[in-house]
Amino acid sequence: PPGEPPLFAYPNGIMDAPTGSPAKAADDLKSWVAAVAARTRPSHVHWCDGSDAEYRRLTEAMVADGTLIPLHERKQPGSYLHRSDPSDVARLEDRTFICSENEADAGPLNNWKSPAEMKAILDPLFEGCMRGRTMYVVPYVMGPPGGDAAKVGVEITDSPYVAANMRIMTRMGRVALEELARKGHFTKGLHSTGDLSKENRYIAHFPDEDLIMSFSSNYGGNALLGKKCHALRLASVQARNEGWLAEHMLIVGVTNPQGETTYIAGAFPSACGKTNLAMLVPPVADRAQGWSVETVGDDIAWLRFGEDGRLWAVNPEHGFFGVAPGTSEETNRNALASCRANTLFTNVALKPDRTVWWEGLEPAPPECIDWLGQPWTPDSDHPAAHPNSRFTAPAGQCPSISDRWEDPQGVPIDAIVFGGRRSRVMPLAFEAFDWEHGTYLGATMSSEKTAAAEGTVGELRFDPMAMRPFCGYHIADYWRHWLEMGRKGNAGGGDKMPKVFHVNWFRRGEDGRFLWPGFGDNMRVLEWIVDRVQGAGDAVETPLGYRPTREELHMDDLGVSAEDEEALFAVNRDDWRAECDQRDAWFDLCGDRLPPELRQQNDALRERLG
Ligand code: SAT
Ligand code: MN
């Protein structure tokens, strides 16, 4: 309005492009920011430059208003605790929408509303929603800047907590505007804390406009829009259109005693141990032999063909958003070291000495403050940390981080591992016969639900390629894209494709006990995978695929009995026939959009079962 000071000024020079022709992108950005400000009416607009000074001001302001609690200066320097609204602790799949023009393009696994219908709901919610708040403009790059893989996004948010998390999880600020000048395009993300009510909570994706709108949640996957919303849901659509893959995968490098490093990408559903596998510390004996593991990423991989026709992967993120409970010196010492400083903790417990605690970290303290801000003792009837409490930590702080984690070309992937959480039926490990069979293994992955999403923990559900909550288009088209990537004559394909494996660390015996020790001992399975990729490594053919031998996994050293080994690898034919029937019903969801190869793979498995 006349007489009022201008709503914002552009930071000095930030729109001056170093190279390329950024004019249109810069204009798009300015007019979009102006339009959003006009609609949401913030009292200030702040363009994030990503500097240390800015981060300090952000966190200081949040300490002042109680949003953050500073932790012990020496024991946990630069770190803070945040307690979320008690109803805002996980992704909300019910309120997550893919708003493609055509309902059929969203597929059977996504909620859908037309763009017009969704905007008719959201536009009034965003109207004036930032009154009295600061609007942060958060430019970010996903992927190492300067590389072909890198993509730019801009998140507008009225949450300083979200802006601070984005500073850790992405390359944020000036670097992103420089990348925008090179790329000339950005993904738009509009987020508001709203009133945090569940009725008004929406996480909406508009693939045709490359736009995300998220309202009334500040939780990670719902609010840090660079992560699942951009780097998976919208990127998966772009990847299909452009001939690459955006996947819910960790990336890890395993070096053998000969000094050869094999890079492995692994898809596991949320809270099934991706961060632990990505940061695995090999057992002493394996290290003595010369085995080592390095971390490239723990959650998302973007894979594209390199000039050599192989698949190369980058980690688009810059930080870890890891599950805290269960993380300890024994289970994942690299994760603990990653979050020793400069970390934002959400919904963990606070000890009297102003350090954090969660179940599984170390023995329970005699007293602490739980994630709800209430006094807690070991006699309390609920966990002190929320089961989905998280740490947001800079990836560069991880002791096992790879020298190549920021390589713009990425790393060449020689194996893809699929895994779920299955107490029964699914063996410890096996190798697919070929890419098509591997695609079938990914398409039929299933897993018991975890606390990472709202819903019933433990319920078994199909989670294809661990992408069920994250695929931004029709799942059958996604599978078709996977099959097509493997066809020879592409930029790659054929025998250049990674070998595919399936693992399950979570199988239990009749007595309910885990049959496999897991954690560091998963190294034995990684070593077998590396040996297979390198053309060595024994395997035995089973109806499911090739399984490792007892010797390959050093089961004697591990003290896994012959009975337990048998139970770990048992293929119970009745169970598996039932599994095949369920897979047929699962594929039926896709009608005639299903690639016929997948049905044929299921029939072939049935035949091998006899
Ligand atoms: O989606 S989050 O980023 O919050 C974590 C997950 O569920 O994988
Ligand atoms: Mn994840």
From TrEMBL:
Alphabetical keyword list: Cytoplasm, Decarboxylase, Gluconeogenesis, GTP-binding, Kinase, Lyase, Manganese, Metal-binding, Nucleotide-binding, Pyruvate, Transferase
Residues of the active site: 272
GO biological process: cellular response to glucose stimulus; gluconeogenesis; glycerol biosynthetic process from pyruvate; oxaloacetate metabolic process; propionate catabolic process; response to lipid; response to starvation
Oligomer and partners: Monomer.
Function comment: Catalyzes the conversion of oxaloacetate (OAA) to phosphoenolpyruvate (PEP), the rate-limiting step in the metabolic pathway that produces glucose from lactate and other precursors derived from the citric acid cycle.
Protein family according to the UniProt entry: Belongs to the phosphoenolpyruvate carboxykinase [GTP] family.
Official protein name in the record: Phosphoenolpyruvate carboxykinase [GTP]
Gene this chain is encoded by: pckG
